[in-house]
Structures are given as structure tokens and as C-alpha cells.
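Running this now, will post back.
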Amino acid sequence: MRDSDWKIIYELHQHPSITKVSGLLYKSQSAITKRIQSIEEELECRIVERTPQGVSFTREGEFVYEMAEKHIRIQNELKDGLRKLREQNKETIRIGSAYTYTKYSLYDVLNPFSEAHPEISIRIINKQSNLLYEMLMEGELDAAFIRSDYTAQVYHELVDHTAAYCVTRDPVDLLRLPEMELVAYQTNQKTMGKIADWWRERFGTELPEPSEDAGYIEFAFRSISDGNKYLLCFLPDNFVNEYHLTLTPLLMKDGKPITRDSWFIYKKEKNRRTAVDELIRYVIKNVKIKS
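Update: finished.
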């Protein structure tokens, strides 16, 4: 008997209708009928009887169904066991990624690599860039995609630039910002340092204390959409403006935009694992911004 024959018997017992089973298995009713006849000829017994309500299994048919159930269960256990063994044999790369890089860029970057290297499993850790840098230095990560210049004592490849914006619900004159409420969100100190430098040049004072700490930047967008508030942040070119907010570029007095670099970083190691070397070569060839 074919593997597909066991499936026909199993499904026919679950759904005693040749019409129903033909739909489930994407076969014609005549093909299902012919296979049942072939099975009965091979086993030299009657398996099912046609009735007005559908099909009814004979005593021998019930025994064949029990065997079909076991066959399918063993098949599934075999496939599941082999899958688990393959997963165990996969080498895992631990990659850190800043939250906004994960949302807007990471999977477009890594999907081609994963497709080309099915033997490599990738684990993504999302944290602030300064924390990812520390984890890399402590050996908890193999590599990381970070925002801002946390690049001391590591190899670093430039992978992106992002520009700074004032984000508000409605268009606003930036000179009015001191009269409005600043919303803060979780980011690294180097990013906030760039924002603070812009504020000091523009207003001659220190960046004001926020009226609200939204945590994740997504919550900050949601908060701003409700009222007279603003957010100072860096956004990628492919930012999806889900809340239809107003984005006003932040420029220095000389007209230059404020930008933040994004880096792929990895440690200076002699005995690096082959899988990590493969990832590094891929990023340098396909993702790194060529100077």
C-alpha cells in the first residue's frame, strides 16, 4: 500500500464521505474510489460499504483504519524527530539589534542570509544600542546592529544613516517647542547627546525635562497623536508613519541635518566560528554602505 492510501483510509473514517475526502486530499472522487478498490483487492477483503449516509467501515475495515492511524502517527513522529535532530545540529548565531533597526531593516537584511544558510539558526536580541555593545564585549553576542557610535575596540561596518526629526501631531514652528511638552522614550546616551547639542545651539539652554516618559518609541508616537506634545528622535527613510504625524527635520544653524550612523559590530577574535564569519562576509558584501 502507498502512504497516500493510509491517508485516504484515515480521512474516510474521520469523514465518511468520498465527496468530502476528495476535497480534503485534492483528488477526484473517481480517483478515491479506484484507490479504495485497489486496496481491497490487495488486502483481499471488503473495507467499506456504500450507504445513503455515505460510507460505512466493515469489521475488516475498522482493523485497517486502526493500522492506518498507527502508520500516520509513526510517520508524523518520524518527521518530527528528524526535524528536531536537524534543529539540534544547527549552529546558532546570537545577533543583537536596536529596536528601530529590527522593525525597519533587520529582516530585509537577514532573510537572504537565512535562506542561503538553512544550517544556521539566528537568535535576535532586541535592546538599546549601548546595552548591545556591552553584551558583545562580554561575549553574550556574536554580532550586533546598533544605532550611534558604540564602536570602540570592535570591528564596525557602516550600514545605515538616519536623520533627526521633531515629531508632532500638527505642523509647528520649532521656535514654539519650549512652550510644548517633550515626550521621552528609551534610547542611548549618544543619541540623546546629538539631540541635546541641537537644542543648545537652537535655544541656548539645556534640553528640558520631559513631561512624559513613554518607554518604547511606539508609545511616544501614540502619545503625541493625542495633543500639544513633541518628540525629538531619529527616523529611517522607510519609516512607516502609521499615526500620520508631522515630521520636521532638525537642522543645525549652518543648515546641515543631524544624522546618526548605524553600525554592524563584531569583536576582534582570532578563532571566530565559521558561521559568524559567514555572516560578517555577507554583511560586508551586501549591507555595508560603500564609501
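The chain has nine helices and eleven strands. More later if anyone needs it.
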